[in-house]
Amino acid sequence: MIICKFPLSSHIPLCHAPIPDFSRLVDRQVETYEQIMDQQLSYNGPSSSLALDIKKAELATADLRTLIKYSSLVTVSELANRLTLFVDKARSVGRDLQILQARTRRSLNNLITYNIFALKALEDVRDKKISAKELAGAYNQMMSLIENDLKRMILVGQDALGSLADLDEMLIAIHDLATHESAYQNKELNKLLAELWTIFGGNRVRKQLFEENLELLKNLDKHRRTAVSQIQTTLYSLTSFQLDMEELREQVSRPSIIEMPVEVHIESIGKGIERLRNSKVALKSGGDTKISKLIDSSNENNDNNVAKEMTI
């Protein structure tokens, strides 16, 4: 209403409306996105990221697959095929996690923009350029934009979560096959060691072959446990991320009104914008360059592996 823009309008009951709780909304945004930043940078330090962890698992598995492919294991064909499927899936999961990280950065950019507009609206209320009722409209619009952003982020997170669950199932299948192979190799080695000829120093080549196979399977299991740890950590982080998103989305959909001076809201939003900008910088620097370098090195390794396979 035009009358509410005049001086002393705050004394008119029709024009008096409490200011929406911008401060609480911004604080919750900042808390959630700082948690998301920590989760996406993984538990392996600030220089790492979830996508980088999965990339490492992919490359390590690819190297191991080459060794197994040219081994004398009984299940060599099936084991190599399962490892190939794991490598392909890990590559796909890595892309999903990078998409999630890009979506998070975009959402952070949007949040900063929304809060800058909210800050301007609060300053306009303070300077009597708009009414408290118009401010409430700006608040509702801001909440609607944030909620739409969160919905998109949750969908991307769910895709990545589903891919990681598939990857975990693949590791279980690889472990089952490797366990059966290990049991067979141990059994055959024990038989060989029990032979009289072996006791007198014979069967050295066969004995060495069984020992090499068992060592290869031991390395496979060690690698599997490392990959399981990385995947479970990533699953936990993404699950926490999704819960944070759902909680923030619920809070955004419930407007709250609180009696608080405009200046307090202005100060709170200003600090919130600064913290969101810091989160954006940290998220951008966490792992992106390292992933690119790792992908480049993996391409070189793949070329070397192809060359090796051609000469074998």
Descriptive report:
It is a single chain. The protein is mainly α. It has a single domain, classed as Up-down Bundle (Hemolysin E, Chain: A), CATH 1.20.1170. It is 81% helix and 0% strand. It has 8 helices and no strands. The chain has helices spanning 22-40, 50-69, 76-126, 132-194, 196-199, 204-252, 262-285, 288-311. It starts with 21 loop residues before the first helix and ends with a helix.
What's the helical proportion of residues?
over 70%
Total domains? 1
Instruction: Determine Rg (CA atoms, Å).
Output: 29 Å
Structural class: mainly alpha
Measured between the Cα atoms of the first and last residue, the distance is 84 Å
Q: What's the CATH architecture?
A: Up-down Bundle
The outline comes out as rod-shaped
CATH class: Mainly Alpha
Write the layout of secondary structure elements.
Blueprint: H1 22-40, H2 50-69, H3 76-126, H4 132-194, H5 196-199, H6 204-252, H7 262-285, H8 288-311
Which terms would index this structure?
mainly alpha, 8 helices, disordered C terminus, Hemolysin E, Chain: A
